[in-house]
Each structure stands twice: as C-alpha cells, then as structure tokens.
TrEMBL record:
Superkingdom, taxonomy of origin: Eukaryota
Gene Ontology CC: mitochondrion
Residue ranges occupied by any Aminoacyl-transfer RNA synthetases class-II family profile domain in the UniProt entry: 178-599
Source organism (scientific name): Magallana gigas (Pacific oyster)
GO biological process, one term: aspartyl-tRNA aminoacylation
Classification via HAMAP family: Asp_tRNA_synth_type1
Protein's name according to its UniProt entry: Aspartyl-tRNA synthetase, mitochondrial
Keywords: Aminoacyl-tRNA synthetase, ATP-binding, Ligase, Nucleotide-binding, Protein biosynthesis
Metal-binding among keywords: no
Gene3D superfamilies: Bira Bifunctional Protein, Domain 2, GAD-like domain, Nucleic acid-binding proteins
Entry's family note: Belongs to the class-II aminoacyl-tRNA synthetase family. Type 1 subfamily.
Amino acid sequence: MSTRCFCRSLQKLFLRGQATRVARLCNSLVISDEKRQCVNNFSQRSHSCGEFRPSHSGEEVKICGWVQYKRLMFLIVRDWSGTVQVLLPESMLGVLKDLPFESVVEITGTVHARKDGEINQEMQTGEIEIQAKSIKVLNFCQEKLPINLNVNADETNEMQRMKYRYLDLRSEQLQFNLRLRSVMVMKMREFLHSYGFVDVDTPTLFRRTPGGAREFLVPSNYPGRFYSLPQSPQQFKQLLMVGGMDRYFQIAKCYRDEGSKPDRQPEFTQVDIELSFTTQEDVRNLIENMILQSWPSFKEQITLPFPSMTYHEAMVQYGCDKPDTRYNMKLHTVDDLMLDCGIQKIEDNMKRAGAHCVALVVPQGSMFSRKEIENLHIDQKFIFVKIGKSGEFKANTNKFKSNTMQRLSSELKVQEGDLMIIVCGEGYVPYEVSGKIRTKAASLLEAKGVKFIPDNQFNFLWIVDFPLFLPAESGEGLESAHHPFTAPHPEDEKYLKTDPLEIRSQHYDLVLNGAEIGGGSIRIHDADTQRYVFENILQEDAGQLQHLIDALSYGCPPHGGIALGLERMLAVICGANSIRDVIAFPKTVEGRDSMSGAPTEISEDELAKYHIQVAPRKTTEE
C-alpha cells in the first residue's frame, strides 16, 4: 500500500467527526476494509483497537497494544486509535494476574457482539468484545509509573511529564495533537505543490545575522570561528528568488536563543514561503486558501477573506497589534471628556502634545474586588468606576467630577454592574496599558464563571501598515520594526532619507484569537536601497550581508513571502495551554530538555578540539 494511501487514511481518520477528545474521535470512525488495510499494513496486527463495530462479528483478528485496565476475566487494550475489551478464558487468567498496567501485548481472538444489557455506551467499541484465543506479552511495564496517564495533563506536574515525555506521549490529547499536526502539514504541502511551489531544504549552519534575536552559536574546526543556527531561512529564500526558483516553501526548523515565554521554544517549526512577482494581497490570499484547505473539518469552519486592520487601528481599538476579536470590549479615546475631570494631574497632562485618555468598559466588572482591579495592571495607576444600582458611581478617587463620570457613562453606554477604566498617558502608552487590562479582565471574567470568550470560535485577522522603523530600545538610533529586509510602503518611500519614522512598511501579521501565528512582507529587491537601510538608517555593517546585497544587484525580481508559526497555530486550534503540548519533545520554559538533561557540560578535552575555553562562573561576592 502506498504512502499516499496511508496518509489519506490518517487524514480521513483525524479530520472527521465532532468529538473533541481523541479517543471519542478515533473510536467514532467506521473504518472501511480499504482503510483498515492501509492503516494496518506492514505490521503484525490485523486491526487497530478503536475500529471494531458489530459488523466485525465473527472475524478472526489480531491486535497489539497497551494494557490500560484489567479486572477478573477481561482487560482493556489501547492503541493510538482507541480501546477495546478483551475477554480471556480461564486458561489465560494466570497471565492476567501478573500483568502490570501499560504492558505491551499481542492478542488473537474472535470478535463477538455483546448482548443488549452488556453494551458499554462509554466505549465507541462498546457493542463488541474480543474473545481471546491467545495472548503474548511483548514487554512488561514496571509496576509503578512515574506519571499518571489517566488524569488530565493539567492535574499532573509538568516537569514530571517533560522528564518522562515518552510516557506522556501515550496520553489521548498528545496523540491527538501530534496526529492533527501531521495531517495539517500534509495538506499544506499538497496545497502548495498544487500551485507550483518547490520544497527546498536550506542550510541550518550559517553565519551570524546582525540585529534580531540572539542566535545559537556552533563551534567549527577553525579557531575563533563559529557557525550560527539561523533564526529563519530568510536570506536563503530571498536568494532562491534571485536564482529563479519562483515559488519556494519549506517546513523549516528555526532557532532563537530567546527568553522564557509560554509561546516560545529555542527551536521551533515554521511553514516558510516565498514567491516572486507578487504583492502582499496575493500572499495573504494564498495563505487564506492554504489554511482553508488544511483546516480540520471537526472544528468550526472558517470563511474567506480574513478581515484586516491597520496597526494604528489595532492599537487604538484594542491596545495591541495582535488583538483577540472574539470578544468586543474595545477601547475608546476620551480626550475631550477628561479635559475638565477634576483630577489636576490628568488635566495638566492633557495639555501636552501627544497625550491621550483611554477608556474601556468591562461588562459585569463591578463584581471585581478593588485588589483584583488594581492587579489588572500593577505598573501604572489608572482610574476605575463601578456602576452600581440605579446608575450610581463608585470611583477609586473622590476628585473625579460626577458630571464627567456621567458624560463618560453616557458616551460609553455603560450598564448597571459594569466597570469603567480610564488610563492616561502619552503616545500609544495608555492604549497599550488598556490593552493589557482588557485581556486580563476577560480572563478574570471567565475565571469567575462569566462566559465571555466564545468556545470553538476562530477569529483570523490581518494586521497591516506597521511602522518600518522604531526608536532603538537602547535609546540611540533606529531599529527595524520586524527585519531589515522589509520594503517600505510605496507611498512612504519619499521619507526614506528625510524622516524614516514616518515610513509604513509592507509587512503583514496574521493573528488568530489574539496569538500572532505568522508574519511576512514584501522584500527590498534593490541593492542600493538595501545597502542604504543597513548603513545609513540602522548603522549596521553592510559587509556582514554583502553576499545578499551582491545577489540583489544581479537582476533580483520583486518578491515577498511569509512564515507561519506551526506550533502557535496548532496550539490555538487544539486549545493547548502552551506550544509545548503540540511538540513531541519540547524544551522547558527555561530552554532545557528535562528528559536527557541537555544542555550538558562538555569536558575540557572536547572544548580544546574547538579551541574554546569556558570562563569560570562568577561568585555572588564577585
């Protein structure tokens, strides 16, 4: 049976049905003879555990799997597809007595339909059982497992799960997540191949790239010289466009030595795409159709086109550039209403250029305690007003004029039980603070039992017209808002040599339920412009990228592309708390491998081969 047949079988198995748990999803499938042959070819078994139905009655079968449960004269055997009950004759009960849970067995027997009173509605194979004729223990499991496979992952210590990841992988949810990942990647590949994209592997040993995230260094046999693991295949895919490849994609491994965040890993996978003679509208249309093609059928279906919003609109309406639009709670600029609010500090601040007052209304937010409200943002003070019965106001300051509160409540259409929050500051700061409060308030409402964020709803959103450059975090000069290869917006190219901060970029981000799952841009394809950006605006040594600048000067076509964060997208689709739950062998938040102990120390003899000396650790006294 061909690999294509095998993949299609898995695709059909995992993209059907409405169940949310993997066992119910797999067990609800009636597998045809053709599919069964595909899934069970090249193995010793005749069937998978979760596929049996009354139609199999009378068949001689062989199954292989793990012992999930045993009692008296029967046991439950599990594999990736689900579970099945096996009834043992008295002659085999001795094997059952000394058989630990999670031992691996091979069983042959006959499928029998259960009597009406014996049907187990909790099992998708509950209408049948297998009467065993032989049982072979392929491997015994230790009596005590270090993690409990029968409880929800949230109830198990994550560090233990990471240390014994090979056991954790047997869990229903991880089996589901990883198989869904496989199917979605396969469908993305098929889609891209159908439109003429070429799958090209690019090197993972490269040179250091100026700017961007910190990179992992790899020692070489040349004293004092190091490779760098690439943050992305960015330069290579642009060079492929110079080389006339026209349409490229890769399921690419990327590496970034970044800090500890739930949505980041030191190594991760992205769906990397680049094409020549395109526009950002073309790229967005391509990605929308690819996602539609690979979208799981058992999830709420998505519609095209995805809505779009400028960076400025996102900031002033939601306070961030990756808003979760599943719920409303938009921000409101209330500058005019706060000019005479009774709070002198705010009135004085509003006289400054660029100052703003931003308000948002938290529905039913009056149920929050004062401490809970203050904890919505602990780094900046803000005004809050609870709306009580008959519309009376209860503010956290007695200086707030009642007529201002009345005008605000009228403007914002507040209702009894709502909570008004007002943040003041300069530039985007009050919007960013309000955006963080918005997100935390929504989570707090959910924690208190208020159904505020819809389940199983997927809101895609494009964010466009980002600034091309930003003031550097160091306080000196400018830095790229995304990366230095992004082309300026055609309407703003005139500012390149006079006012770079006024330039919008041709960058676009794709957001899903408040998570940035992808980003791309139209690239600079002119050597002179690229050199000017490096040397004159970013004050970088263009010599480090001379190979790319040279390539652009040899007839580089206009081109653009995008990279989708595969794990981030899957985490949202699967409802996972972290991208670690959609990766087979992830690192911890600190970037360590709990299972193997990596990174590990290297002996001085090994280090000497690479001409490396490790500086001694500094003590606290030093």
